[in-house]
Amino acid sequence: MNDKKNPCEPETIACSVCLKEIPVSEARSEEATDYVMYYCSLDCYDKWKNQSQESNP
Ligand SMILES: [Zn+2]
After folding, report:
1. Domain 12-54 sits in CATH 2.60.40
2. What is the Å distance from ligand 1's center to 2 Cα?
3. What whole-number percentage of the chain has pLDDT above 90?
């Protein structure tokens, strides 16, 4: 028996804010400066946005 991840599972990615794993198909993405960040909900998007703005007073 093999308990490793089933290769048939949908691909998941970690939310860039809360690190929750979400299916890639449901992830919202935003192109940041040099990379694409993924977030699970608009809540996390707002947090990320606020953080990046606060880091530049
Ligand atoms: Zn999240």
Report:
1. no
2. 30
3. 40
